[in-house]
Amino acid sequence: MTKLNCELALDFKTKLAGLMHREMLPDGDGMIFVYKYNWFRSFWMKGMKFPIDIIFIDADCRITKIVSAPVYKGFFHWKKYNGWAKYVIETNRFWCKINDINVGDKITLGEEITENGISKIEILFLKVSYVDLPEV
After folding, report:
1. What does pTM read for this prediction?
2. I need a labelling partner for 23 at 20 to 30 A (CA). Which of 11, 17, 133, 135 fits?
């Protein structure tokens, strides 16, 4: 089980800004974007000063896609990263690789706390192992 401490992005303004214009993100931290339902979500790297992993998670709390996004140096045509999700987590690049987090793994949402006026939540990542089924 792996833990990640995430700021909550619940309102439009916080979701729009995300981690934009921040200088860095402490190890073991991230931001979780919470939506009301599963849908096709798009994220971009506009204004980002460091590379990130973008983790798309469905309503069943299962990881559907992981993208390792570099910092984009161009002025126009920022690259978009798309995925099917109810939740999306941004964290430091290669965090998923370092912690062996993969598509199909599940998350558990902890209790929400407020720290220095910022709402946060602890995310637990659970490894999912598949049992080989007999051939039919």
Report:
1. 0.89
2. 11
